[in-house]
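Q: Hi! New to this. If I give you a protein sequence and the SMILES for pyridoxal-5'-phosphate, can you show me the bound structure?
A: Yes, paste them in.
Q: Okay, here:
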Amino acid sequence: MSRHAARLTGFGTTIFTEMSALALRTGAINLGQGFPDTDGPREAVEAAVTALRSGENQYAPLPGVPALREAVRDHQRHHYGLEPEEVLITFGATEAIAAALLGLCDPGDEVIVLEPYYDSYAACIAFAGARRRPVTLRPPDFGLDPDALAAAIGPRARVLLLNTPHNPTGRVLDRAELELIATACREHDLICVTDEVYEHLVFDGRHLPIATLPGMAERTLTISSIGKSFSFTGWKIGWCSGPGELVAEPTGCGDAPLSVVAPDV
Ligand SMILES: Cc1ncc(COP(=O)(O)O)c(C=O)c1O
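A: Thanks. Here is the predicted structure of the protein with pyridoxal-5'-phosphate bound:
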């Protein structure tokens, strides 16, 4: 008899573990896992070493170190003109996605998700007891099909899990596509959880966060991390920003609304 919870039936190891082991076994070049060949900025490594040597080694406040939360807020303001009410620091973007889905979905709720998708999405949706409703991005341009989006939204739809710039297609959703998604979220009262870890790896044009579209800041949880932008995938430092009630409550961090200027404790 299986020792797993029934909702995890069919989930094995991650695709990264599988592909990396295969590459090791066969001596193949490992294109399966997205980490860079070079480390990020030396100054960042030095700053981390200095912090560790100067005694920054004990529990941090659960929502994250205030200076880092403030830096994330500054980043959202500087690059996109966003003013998130709350910022929460997480164990990579992956934990932020998991916490958001666990905090927002009841068993039987549906999560609309662009397919193909990052490996952890399906497992996190299953952990939440929710159902996955994929909207497939098809070649050659991997654009968003408005009919497929409309067809995926049923009465139990609760969350739209967006990923742009998109892994693995590399597609950067344009304004018209984001407006379609935003309209759907507003009309069906969906929360948009948006994974923007590739926000700074755009070669043509610019990444547009969906939270900047009218009426979206109040229903969007924006997630990103240090891994891709700074080439420090091993540090696993991520964050989630958005309205206070969405960041503080579903993620269960803090018994009072979090303030980005909360004193260090
Ligand atoms: C779309 C997407 N989201 C999240 C992650 C993981 O982010 P983190 O390492 O910050 O958990 C990846 C890693 O490949 C990814 O491709």
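A: The radius of gyration is 19 Å. Let me know if you'd like me to explain how to read the tokens.
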